[in-house]
Amino acid sequence: IKLFSNGLNNNYFYEARITSQDSGLVYVTATGYSLINEGGLTYSWKIFGRRSLNGGKTWEILQELQGGYVFAAHPSITSYKNNILIAYSSRKPSTLQALYSNNQGVTFTDYVISNKANSQTPLYSSVASDPYQIYVTWTGERNDATYKRWNVFFDKSDYSLTWQTDRVITGNTTGKIKFFATNSLAANNFGSV
Length: 193
Known about the structure:
Blueprint lengths: L11 E9 L5 E12 L4 E11 L10 E4 L5 E9 L2 E9 L2 E8 L7 E6 L8 E7 L4 E8 L8 E8 L9 E2 L25
Antiparallel strand pairs: 1-2, 2-3, 3-4, 5-6, 6-7, 7-8, 9-10, 10-11, 11-12
């Protein structure tokens, strides 16, 4: 089954991520980009999604979940019961954003997870969830008195999406580590991350 067709409405897709549940809910998200300036190299990146309620046998129509920014990329997705959270990088300004649904992906609301001064766009997020919390990690560059260059950050929230104060989990205070390219996060039903 082809879920994202390149060229559809001038969109080209990559970075697809998936979540599924025993109930039959399957949700797939992907980054799509389109050329917005035919004479140049100006692109617009957007976040798209598709939903199945029967384990992937049939799929609802493609949804544009977020658009209008110059950059929205690197999605990650998690779900628990009716809740779906898609984290993504944005330059609105340099933020880690989240699209959150509490109705199995019928509608989504846009939230900010991290928006810090002295930082570049957060990249390569990973999200996980359990019955009580949503967890997120991402690679971010902050140049301030404590953090030099790139680190991996961690934050968590209950399902009200009130995020705590993020914390560094890599400790790159010297700037010797240049970059963390991917992050992976998992949680179980007992609160272990």
